[in-house]
Design a protein that fits this description.
The protein is of the alpha+beta class. The protein is built from 6 helices and 8 strands, in the order αααααββββββββα. A hairpin with a 2-residue loop joins strand 2 (143-147) and strand 3 (150-161). Helix 1 (7-23) packs parallel to helix 3 (71-83) and helix 4 packs across helix 6 (233-244). The longest helix has 17 residues, at 7-23. The mean pLDDT is 91.
Length: 250
């Protein structure tokens, strides 16, 4: 059986290949070490270039800034990026938060965040793991205390990839500790530049510092930045993890 790309698919492959050839340094061997400032800058440059061409979130529905592209087009994109070990990814925004907001987010959250992700304008990080609460995520202790129309966040997250560069954080925090561990968790969207947020890169034995700790000291988050219902964060977080693992269609 003979296999050929369609004219549209072949044209896309040529255009993507030409873009990457021009965007990557001539001596590029990859993969990127995004803990290096120059590699991180390259990641952001390529991410924006992909977004400007409508390629960054091709698989997303058109109403959210995507192209509702076919599985083959998505495969071509992934193959070309992998072949060159090219930076230009934002899995926290495109593969994790985006699909989560499409399912659980409010209309205002979709309007505010999905477009910014699709345009490559914002970088997200993840605030799940804590010291002593890694694989046992349900045991997390970071608190989110409701005070009127705000939550007050106190606690610590760890092993957050590239948090030192992130603009915003998808955060899982405890709003109620009276029930089972999985109950009482709430999913919030947090501004990393908010007062009371501090980040400390983790120096590893390899010399890399792509992971970081995040500390929260009376950080205010609006109730409008809650995704889903209060106390239903476990279900929302599981949907986010399923998206990361490629178990959703978006």
């Amino acid at each position: 059986m003979r296999f050929d790309f369609t004219p549209e698919e072949s044209d896309f492959r040529r255009k993507l290949s030409a873009f990457l050839d021009g965007a990557l340094p001539a001596d590029w061997h990859g993969p990127a070490d995004e803990s290096r400032d120059d590699h991180w800058a390259l990641n952001q440059q390529i991410k924006k270039g992909l977004a400007d061409r409508g390629w960054f979130v091709m698989s997303w529905p058109t109403e959210y800034g995507g192209a509702d592209s076919s599985p083959m087009m998505n495969t071509i994109f992934a193959e070309e990026m992998a072949y060159r070990k090219a930076p230009g990814h934002d899995r926290f925004g495109t593969r994790m938060l985006g699909p989560t907001l499409m399912r659980f987010g409010s209309d205002s959250q979709r309007t505010e965040h999905l477009g910014a992700i699709a345009r490559g304008e914002v970088q997200w990080c993840q605030g799940y793991s804590e010291p002593g609460s890694g694989s046992d995520l349900a045991s997390l202790k970071t608190r989110a205390e409701r005070r009127g129309d705000k939550y007050i966040i106190n606690g610590q997250k760890t092993w957050s990839t590239m948090a030192q560069y992130a603009d915003r954080c998808l955060l899982l925090a405890r709003t109620d500790g009276s029930g089972p561990p999985q109950a009482g968790l709430t999913y919030l969207l947090l501004d990393m530049k908010a007062k009371g947020v501090s980040v400390r890169p983790i120096d590893q034995i390899t010399g890399d510092d792509e992971f970081a700790e995040i500390f929260f000291d009376d950080v205010e988050v609006s109730v409008e930045d809650r995704v889903g219902e209060e106390g239903n964060g476990w279900a929302v977080a599981q949907a986010t993890l399923a998206s990361e693992r490629g178990l959703t269609l978006v």
